[in-house]
Amino acid sequence: MVDNKQQWKAWLYLSPAIVLLLIFTVWPIINTVRMAFLENYSGLKAVAGMKFEFGLGNFVKVMEYKRFLQCLKNTVLLCVLTVPISTILALLIAVTLNSIKFLQKALQTIFFLPYVTNSIAIGMVFAAMFNVVGSFYGTENELIVTAGIINNVIEFFGGTHVNWINYGSSYEANMFVMVVYIVWNALPFKILVLLGGLQSINKQYYDAAKVDSAPRHRVFTHITVPLLSPMLAYVIITGFIGGFKEYTSIVGIFGETMGPPDDAGRLNTMVGFIYDALETNSQGRASAAALILFGIILVVTLINNWVSKKRVHY
Hints:
It is a single chain. By secondary structure, this protein is mainly alpha-helical. The chain has two domains: 57-130 and 169-311, MetI-like (MetI-like fold); 132-165, no CATH class. It has 13 helices and two strands; from the N terminus they run ααααααββααααααα. The protein has helices at 7-36, 43-47, 57-64, 68-99, 104-112, 119-130, 149-156, 171-199, 203-211, 216-244, 248-254, 270-279, 283-311, and strands spanning 132-137, 143-147. The chain has a two-stranded antiparallel ribbon with strand order 1-2. A hairpin with a 5-residue loop joins strand 1 and strand 2 (143-147). The radius of gyration is 25 Å and the shape is globular.
């Protein structure tokens, strides 16, 4: 504890950080709530001196927007699909890495590399991998399609190329590409957290299981998973929060159109919806959408915390 006579020094040292937090964190949150409840709020109109009435009109407009339900559906679907898959894969990989002593550090570095790589750059690479580059007519006037790496692998095993992300591609194919990319991009952080949790588990539990000749699957389900449950709860909660804020991965693969050329906005998310509103200088509608997204994330987080209290062993 800091002596009462010396507390002013502590506040003095903290004051730069507190001022920055107030300006760049606290005030933007307060201002977002304020703009959300001002009818048809626009920054340019506010500068011009226009007054705005207090009300719920911005929330109504968000709900009535023709693409809102599609954005919400895409966001929820990406979360529901990617979080369980990425968590299960990360757990299996972490357990495998923890049991490997040879080249363990090198493998950890390889798995962690995507986490420190720019999301847009990774998305562009995935777009090239799943892309159908083009088509041309051969010497015998047959149509030859130049496929990407993924389609080349499919054709190598006797399949036919799939139109993943180009003009005329299906929603299911687009969503499959996004799930693969998001899962791959989410693995490094989860592996790192779970691997740290595994290495902190007391080895006496495993020694006792060996004495009892417990099979590996029983050790995994009755020792590893329960003792790792705090870390699992953490990666699941942060996974859902990150999933609901998904945006850059879709831009990296599809660009600003957020979908194939013939259906722009097909894969738009809630965050993309907010950016679209900001581009049209509709700060009130964007703020209302941000509060709706905040409410959804809050409810999901509270549910996860409630489940964690019943299932997590500390």
